[in-house]
Structures are given as structure tokens and as C-alpha cells.
Amino acid sequence: MRLQLTRRGDYAVRAVLALTEADRVMATPELAAQMEIPVNFLPQIMPGLVRRGILTRRLGRNGGYTLGRPAESISLLDVIEAGEASAPAPPTCILRGDRCRPSEPCRIHPAVSRASEAMRGVLAAANFASLRNGASLEP
Q1: Among 5, 89, 104, 109, whose Cα sits 20 to 30 Å from the Cα of 30?
Q2: Torsion angle of alpha carbons 37, 42, 53, 64, nearest 10°?
Q3: Partners of 64 in beta bridges
Q4: pLDDT tens figures, 4-51
């Protein structure tokens, strides 16, 4: 099993990590160059991060983006959810090839649901201050 982000999610994580490490306002071209993100792609990602309070946008000559709250209070899950363009697709049932019906879950549904919740818990526990410092994410 693997976790795979869309480009939007990947670039959102990269952008927030760069801003966490810089600890200052960064202009879009600088941010794009540092994290190898296409400069024309950032305007599609950043508004979602600003709406959720993860980033703050400064307008004007010395404008750019900065963290909207302390890195300790920004989880990896927050950024991934803000960066992904749409809500996650409902999981496809391995046994049925379609969505599990809540009234009749398949036999493996409980195990897969627990695994999904565990992954979300790990992503929620990983904050950008710990990622910046290279802290272990082990429980």
C-alpha cells in the first residue's frame, strides 16, 4: 500500500515546508525556484492554504507568503487536505470493485477503515515544526 499525492498536494507540502524553513515572507518566484514548483502552478495552490489559515499572503512590493500560524500548529494532514483540489474519492472496495455500502460492508472493510484512520492519525500528528527539525514521527 502506498500514499500518493496529486501534484497539488505534493506542491502544497513543499511550499509550506519551504516557508517553515525560511521563517520569513517569500515571493512566489523565489518559493517556486527553491522547491522546484512551476511558478504558474503556485497561484492554483496557495489560495486554499490561505483560506484555511495555514499561510498568510502579503500584497505589495515586498509581498509574498508566510506561515499563517506557528509551524507547531500546522499538521501534514492539514496541508495535504488544503492542497488537494477536491475531497478524497470514496475508497473503492477491494472485493466489490465499487464503494462499500454502509448497510452491508464487505468483510475487509473494518480492517481497511482502521488502517486509513491510523494513517490519518500519523499525518495529523506530524507538524511542520517537527518536520523542519527532522524529529522522529514514531509513537
Answers
A1: 5
A2: 90
A3: 58
A4: 788 999 999 999 999 999 989 999 999 999 999 999 988 899 999 999
